[in-house]
Amino acid sequence: MRASLRAIDNARAAILSVAAVYILSVAIGIGMASLGNAYALDRRDAIVGSAQSGDTLVAYRSGDRLRAALLDFAANLGLGGLTSTALGISVVGAYPVFAYRGWVGGIVSVDAQHRSRLASSDTALYYLVTLVLQLIPYSIAGGVGVRLGIGAWRDMRGSSRASVLGLRTDLLRDAALAYVVIAPLFLVASLWEFLM
What we know:
Elements: H1 2-10, H2 12-34, H3 38-51, H4 55-61, H5 65-88, H6 94-107, H7 121-154, E1 163-164, E2 167-168, H8 169-195
Antiparallel strand pairs: 1-2
């Protein structure tokens, strides 16, 4: 565990840059949705509507909340975390994707009737805790990917450091070690979201 935390600390600057993009884009999404922006509300309705037929929400609606949480965890870890790390390698191309994901997290701050979840202390607490619990592992996953990409860019001029497909093996090891922390964080986020 100590090695995993050290690996995360080594990527601190990249992780914080990803987190900043998420926070800013979430705030923009919340603002747009709260102000009744038609585009934001239409996207919110389309995204939430398409998710209704997914396995996670089907399991949740049928009362199998633990299965829903585990399906959400698997999707967040695989489709979210691992793709965030892979996208992060591109460095520049990753940030627009992170911004879009954060914006989506912001526009779902309103419910199906487009009422803000922040208007009530109960729904606000649930929404904000869920959001924070998800953004922490997403930021770490994206940040370790960005660190991998920056390392590859720096070594393009030639380096004697060990690498795999142009990615430094020490940074790949750190990225893998970070997942010892990332995976449980995604699990906690999913359990909170579907069991609370």
